[in-house]
Write a structure and sequence with these properties.
5-stranded antiparallel beta sheet, 5 strands, alpha+beta
Length: 82
């Protein structure tokens, strides 16, 4: 990702969440789900009610006939929203 910095990485290194210069948290669907479940500040899960939203919807890829050129649903790019 251009200009994004690592914001969080899972303990096993499998999942990474990035923060953009605009403060948006982005990553794969799998990464953001793991982040929401485990990230804490002061013992509180501050993003517990936030949700990962696909930047590119799978149905749009299918409609365009290009679904086979992209990773699995869990690995598509997402942004975290409240």
């Amino acid at each position: 990702m251009v200009d994004a910095q690592v914001f969080w990485r899972s303990k096993n290194g499998k999942y990474t969440v990035y923060i953009t210069p605009a403060g948006q948290l982005v990553g794969t669907y799998s990464s953001l789900k793991s982040f929401v479940r485990s990230y804490q500040q002061g013992g509180k899960r501050v993003y517990a009610r936030w949700h990962a939203h696909h930047i590119i919807e799978e149905k749009h890829l299918e409609n365009l006939g290009i679904r086979g050129h992209f990773p699995a649903y869990e690995e598509l790019p997402n942004v975290l929203l409240p």
